[in-house]
Amino acid sequence: MLSDKMVDALNEQIGMEGYSSFSYLSMAGWFDNRSLKGCAAFMYRQSGEEHGHMMKIFHYLLEMNANAISPAIQKPESEFKDVKSIFEESLAQEQRVTKSINDLVELAIKESDHATYAFLQWYVIEQREEENLIRTILDKINLIGEGSQSLYFIDKELEAINKAQVAAEQRGTK
């Protein structure tokens, strides 16, 4: 049985994952409006992935006979300065989620909640992978540069990264 404190914390995480999903969706729209289809596809996939993370926690709460709450989601930004700033915000967002997951793990340890601790280990690994992926993209953006012609190459890089991620998901290695 989950403690009230753990239920509340997991429901807060549902909201955080939901916000991340909508934030990535907003970023995808920004890219799509600028015909950066590779970047848009990457962000649409990220949005769907975050939605899946949210639902995984939602279902876990129900499985544990706890109240899962559909959160009110704050409206994310819809206007951005440039491609680099979008990925900088993506990294900051992933780092906030990582901190929140780590706080949940600490709470599970403190409460000797072994089931939730085990459940959260998937998120710990996922967050490490997400942060690494976004840092890699930022490294590529820094290598390519940010001029108008660079956008073409950035878009192609993101298209390739997205295809590799989709292929890894289909193989079950991600």
Automatic annotation (TrEMBL):
GO biological process: intracellular iron ion homeostasis; iron ion transport
UniProt keyword Cytoplasm present: yes
Xref: CDD domains: Nonheme_Ferritin
Localisation per UniProt entry: Cytoplasm
GO MF term set: ferric iron binding; ferrous iron binding; ferroxidase activity; identical protein binding
Function: May alleviate iron toxicity in the presence of oxygen. Iron-storage protein.
Protein name, entry field: Ferritin
Organism: Candidatus Opimibacter skivensis
